Predict the 3D structure of the following.
Amino acid sequence: MKNYFILKNLCRKMYLAGAGDFWFEESEISKGKSLRYRLLCFILFAFYISMTVLEIIGVFFGDMPNDEKSDCTTFAVSHIIVLCKMLSVILNRKRVKELNKKLVEICKDHEDEHRVAENYRIMKINAVAYAVFVYGTFVLFIFEGIRKMMTGSHFITIVTYWPFYEDNSSIAVTFRFITTGVLGVMMVPMICIDSFALVTLIMYKYKFITLRYYLEGLREQFDRNNYAGNEEYATDQLHSGLVEGIVMHSNLIRLSKDIDRSVGGVLALQVCLSSGSVVSLMLQLALSKDITLGAQLKIILFAVALYFLLALFLCNAGEITYQASLLSDSIFYCGWHASSMRRDLRRLVLFSCAAAQRPIVMKAFNMLHLTYGTFIQVVRGTYSVFALIYAQNESTAE
């Protein structure tokens, strides 16, 4: 039941971050419906949306230097997509609860303690590394804002339409610090929801690994039981075990659609976020004339964080396809050919192998394939767009 506690603990963190209760057991985390909690969530998201709206207005109507205009554009695009990612999960709360229940129940009787511990270690490393990248970037933005303030300008991290660039009043300075705090708080539910999508993919991958080891164990069990006078018992055990494995495989195949409906929006929007925002960041880095080392570091780390999360999503999704492709051999070599019911088992094995040979490709919005190749295409496409815009800008400048 290790997966039970992993998911429950993650859902508890999502609840504390203000995203809501996603656990399938009622009143286990939220302890009933709380009006105070709903009011707090409403206030938090009102702050997030208001800040994003001010960024959007700043992009179109703001009068500010080029570097702040670039930051305003990058943050506006990023925060629009981040809000859409969070809302795509929050508005699908019922489906997410059903997904959590299925992730806990499927293959739970055959999970190995050591493999689940390894699974948890990988989840923890990936989630912590992503959080470190995100808050490392946030700290660099704060340092850059402090540096600007120390050199005679004003403190700035989030660039919004108001306060105006020339406004250095106490109200304006206070508002800039408040938006920085809002950004820091906004990152908590964002990281929790991204981590949930990542944990879902990793846990799904390990379900296929668990099933593969279970099917390989059927052959070992059959060989131990298949001796003179015990052939019928060995065959019955193989038959019942194979049927159970096929049922688990069918449930896992159906689970891919549940994952797409629940967190597919997060995965698809991350592709848009990583490609669009990174182009803006690269142009800002390439076209800025007097950019400081701190500003360069914050831009580079921001871009790395976006690509790092995308790589985690797409590579784990690609690993699901690979692990699922190994099941056909495990089914075929389960020992059916040596049993006394090999003619009856042959048809069952053939249908199961055929089903396992259909590649399970994770998709976002049922159209975008989440594979290793998609990650490479996104990286190449992003660089191509950057190179095109940069070349056009250089030719215009000349």
Q: What stands out?
A: The radius of gyration is 26 Å. The first strand starts at residue 363 and ends at 364. The mean pLDDT is 90.
